[in-house]
Write a structure and sequence with these properties.
nine-stranded antiparallel sheet; 432 residues; seven-stranded antiparallel sheet; mainly beta
Amino acid sequence: MAASHHRSLPVLVLILSLLLLAAAVGPAVSEANSTVFWPEKEMRKYRRARAHLKRLNKPPVKTIESPDGDLIDCVLSHLQPAFDHPKLKGSRPLDLPERPRGHAPDGTATTGHDFQLWRTSGESCPEGSVPIRRTKEEDILRASSAKRFGRKPIATTRLDSESDDHEFDHSLVPCNSHDRQHAVGYVVGDQYYGAKASINVWAPKVTSPSEFSLSQIWIISGSFGTDLNTIEAGWQVSPQLYGDSSPRFFTYWTSDAYQATGCYNLLCSGFIQTNNMIAIGAAISPVSKPTGGQFDISLLVWKDPNHGNWWLELGSGKLVGYWPSFLFSHLSEHASMVQFGGEVVNSRPMGEHTSTQMGSGRFAGEGFGQASYFRNLQVVDWDNSLVPVPNLRVLADHPGCYNIQGGINAVWGNYFYYGGPGRDDDNDDSCS
């Protein structure tokens, strides 16, 4: 009898395991025909994600696997996502633009073609193609919806380019819980046709998947109501967008204050890439280390006076691509503000300020080797000439969490240190 009892134990365990598995899986099962019924909402989400993947991922002529797991597809230049736009169908990338006068590659910047992980093996895409980080299903499913995938959250804290006192406007955008916080240097009050800076790269801690930390240049025009135009480029850590905590080279644009237009990188019809060795959205390596080597990237964004498109250059004269002028309303003419600096999303986890770091996670006062920096700040004027930034102002909207200190010297020109830890044990009373 005892032996029979022991033999029945594995059967009982198996039955219990199957019952628990059925309870955990979730979809309903019809006893009549054993058909599985997935919840309609989930089915719609998966269908939209797959449809979006089909639109984004173009057939590659070659695929390169990065050491971090990214797949880099080499796509024929005229088949990249930008050319899905009705105004670009059937066209091809433009010839080289006219560079700004006074422009000399930053000889002290450490950016080469091999500053990204996917290029550590020395591979690149063939001429006539561009490298595009492949979007995976899980990337889209991490977003709030397929429609919002690849877009920034609408800002609830912002620096208004048309305000009289140029202070932060703390009015809220309805129906959005994300608070974007900044430590920036900026110029306003003139017509700007581009900007240049060198930015050192770090790997700040981002504590919530829905938050990000970035450092970038903003080219801005319009108001912060519904017609804001921006062009943005820099580096960012965004677990929701990329699925990890690596700093990545990125671009962004919007023509309606982040509402319905624009996106990161090549995740919509917009930016036209021309470079076959730089993958927008790919991880940057190496990064800066405290009291160790400082790694920075040099970025130049400017409006080509011949065709009116906004071009992006990285490092020592490497053209990445351009934003067509027709994407914008105000920026089809010029910018009214340029910003340089850091931004984080504060989702207020547990009702407290986030501990997501900006820059290196250290305050500006800690200086070189500890704090993040922007150096050699310049703007492009009406004559397509690069000039030192005039009357740079610095501003941090939550200085107890993230701050900024500017300066000028013969080597770095206009520069500033910026960043901070957000909320931590040492500054939990002053950061809110």
